[in-house]
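Hi F.,

I've been meaning to write this up properly since the lab meeting, where we talked about keeping a consistent format for the predictions we share between groups. The idea is simple: the sequence comes first, exactly as it goes in, then the C-alpha cells exactly as they come out, then a line or two of notes. No screenshots and no reformatting. I'm using this chain as the first example so we have something concrete to point to.
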Amino acid sequence: MHAQTALILATANPLVAAAPAPLELPLLVPIANRPLLFHLIDDLVGAGMRRVVVGAPPVALLQLRTAGIDRETWTTDLRFWIVAERADPVRAIAAAHADGALDDGPFVLHPADCRQRGVALRQPPDEGPAADALLFVAEAEDDVPMPALASDAATPRARWQPPPRHRLTGVQVLGPAALGAARELTDELDGAIGIERLVDRMADSGGHVATMPVDDWWRYGGRIDDLLDENRRVLAEIEHSVDPASLVDSTTHGAVVVHPSARLVSTLVRGPVVIGAGAELTDAYVGPYTAIGAGAVVQGTEVENSIIDAGARLRHVGLRLEASVIGRDAEIVRDFRLPRALHLWVGDRARIALS
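Output, unedited:
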C-alpha cells in the first residue's frame, strides 16, 4: 500500500476546546514562526505525498490564506476542502470521497494537531501481507494528551483496541476499502464514529489491519508546554543565518536566524533563536529556544524559551519572560506612572503567572 495522497483534517479538537489554551485552532499555532500546518505539509511532502488535501471549516481556510499559505511553495498538489467544524474522521473520509477531494487510492489521514516524523507514512513492501489499514500507535504517557476512542450510547464501543499501553496517534494509512467502510458506517450510525469502528468494519470484511509503534511523535493538547516543546525541537535544527546589516551594536551566539528586514539594536541573542520579518529589538536579551514573530517589538526586555507571535509588543517588562507564549498583536508594557498597579486586558482563558 503506497499512499501518495494525504488528508489533513483540521476539525475541532475536544482536548483543546476543554483546555485553558492561548490558541485553539491547531493548524495555526506558531512553531518557530511558521503555523503548525506548514510543518505538517513539509513532513508529508518529505514522505512522498504528491497531493495534500487540507480539510478545514471555512473560517479556518480564510485564516490560512491570511497566514500566507498561498505564498508558500511545495512540490505537491495542495488542495483545500471545506469540512464541518466538528466532523469526526470517519464522516470526514466519506464526505471527502463523495466530494472528490479523495480518489479511490490509498491515503494518509493526518489530524492537524500532531506531528509524526521519522517514520515512513507508506507501508514498507517487505513487512508481510499488504495492509488495508496501517495505524500508528504511541506509548501512552500520563502527561501527553492522546486521542480518545469514540464511544457513546448511539455508537457501541468498537472491538478493535490498540496494543497494551499504547494509543492511536491519530495518523493512519488507509487503503481503498476504508472508503466504502466509511460510507457504510456514516449511513448506518448516529453520533461520532471513531477510527476504531472503521477498523472493525474493514476486519469484518476480511481486510488486514496492521499497527506500527512510533516514538518521534508530538501532539498539541492546548497547553503552553505543548507549544514550547515542539518549538524547541524545531529550533534545535536551524542553521545560523544573520545579515550583519540587521545588527547595530548587537551580538549573536549560536544558531540564530534573523530575517534581513529585522533590526536589532544593542541586543544580545543566544541561539537557537529565530527572529521574523520586520521585528524590532532594542536594548533586549533573547535567550535560547525563542521564536520572535514578524513585526514584533521587544524593547528593554529579556526573554527566553518563549514564543512571541507576530505583531506582539514587549516594552520594559521588568522581569525576564521565560516559558511564555505571547499571542499575536498582544502588548505587555511597564507603565511608570504613579500610583503603581497592574493594568490588564486579558482574553478568555488566558493565564498570567506573576513571580
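Notes:
Helices lie at 14-17, 36-46, 58-66, 89-98, 177-188, 195-204, 224-235.
The radius of gyration is 22 Å.

If this format works for you, I'll send the rest the same way.

G.
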